[in-house]
């Protein structure tokens, strides 16, 4: 009877692990713009409220402060794929700015001028040119940003490390206990 209970516990733990892994993989896939290719992407934490305006009908509706964003890099030859409503990541003064495209001006020879604006800002930004564009925001996670923000806190880090250590120690102890009981019961018939 004990072996059946152990097998049932192992099945339940396996189902939980597979479900969590599957949910995690799907979340990453969705967050990266329906792709598992992360070679041309980067995650960033949004630290200002310039994109935390009214909800829009665009794919990226709004970006609250402390959200985690996924930026898909764009090659200079692919600037023509950017559309009004996309959220661009571009460099200005050694900082990455993330604002919505409100107008596009084709300068010819695969060069563009983008007029951008933070959703919560009253006016447009200075013009953004193709050379400074890093990429396009393809995913936003306010929960992911919350976890990243919390993880930056020293006290939270310590609590998480202690909690993980307790879970690992408990799991190892349970596995040893299951195998030790199995060894005592183990099939020696004579």
Q: Could you say how many structural domains there are in total?
A: 3
As residue ranges, the low-confidence spans are none
Overall geometry comes to elongated
Q: Which whole number gives the mean pLDDT?
A: 81
CATH architecture of the largest domain: Ribbon
Strands, total number: 7
Q: Number of helical segments?
A: 3
Q: Main beta sheet: strand number and arrangement?
A: 7 strands, antiparallel
Kindly provide the name of the CATH class of the largest domain: Mainly Beta
Q: Element order, helices and strands? A: HEEEEEEEHH
Strand order of the largest sheet: 1-2-7-3-4-5-6
Q: Helix fraction?
A: 25-40%
Radius of gyration: 25 Å
CATH domain fold name of the largest domain: Umud Fragment, subunit A
Question: Could you describe the 3D structure shown?
Answer:
The chain has 190 residues and is α+β, with helices and mostly antiparallel strands. The protein folds into 3 domains: 1-31; 38-140, Ribbon (Umud Fragment, subunit A), CATH 2.10.109.10; 153-190. 38% of the residues lie in helices and 26% in strands. It has 3 helices and 7 strands, in the order H-E-E-E-E-E-E-E-H-H. The protein has helices spanning 2-31, 142-151, 154-185, and strands at 41-45, 68-73, 87-92, 95-108, 111-117, 128-129, 133-141. A 7-stranded antiparallel β-sheet has the order 1-2-7-3-4-5-6. Strand 4 (95-108) and strand 5 form a beta hairpin. The longest helix has 32 residues, at 154-185.
Q: What would you say about this model in short?
A:
This protein has 190 residues and is an alpha+beta fold.
């Amino acid at each position: 009877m004990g072996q059946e209970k152990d097998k049932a516990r192992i099945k339940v733990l396996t189902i939980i692990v597979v479900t969590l892994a599957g949910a995690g993989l799907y979340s990453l896939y969705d967050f990266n713009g329906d792709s598992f290719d992360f070679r041309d992407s980067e995650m960033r934490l949004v630290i200002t409220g310039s994109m935390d305006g009214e909800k829009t009908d665009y794919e990226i509706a709004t970006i609250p402060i402390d959200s985690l964003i996924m930026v898909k890099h764009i090659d200079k030859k692919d600037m023509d794929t950017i559309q009004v409503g996309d959220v661009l990541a571009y460099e200005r003064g050694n900082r990455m700015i993330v604002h919505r495209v409100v107008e596009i001006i084709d300068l010819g020879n695969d060069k563009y001028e983008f007029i951008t604006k933070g959703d919560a800002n009253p006016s447009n930004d200075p013009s953004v040119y193709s050379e400074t564009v890093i990429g396009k925001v393809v995913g936003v996670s306010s929960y992911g940003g919350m976890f990243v923000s919390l993880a930056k806190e020293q006290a939270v880090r310590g609590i998480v490390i202690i909690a993980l250590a307790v879970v690992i120690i408990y799991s190892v102890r349970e596995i040893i206990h299951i195998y030790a009981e199995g060894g005592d019961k183990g099939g020696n018939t004579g």
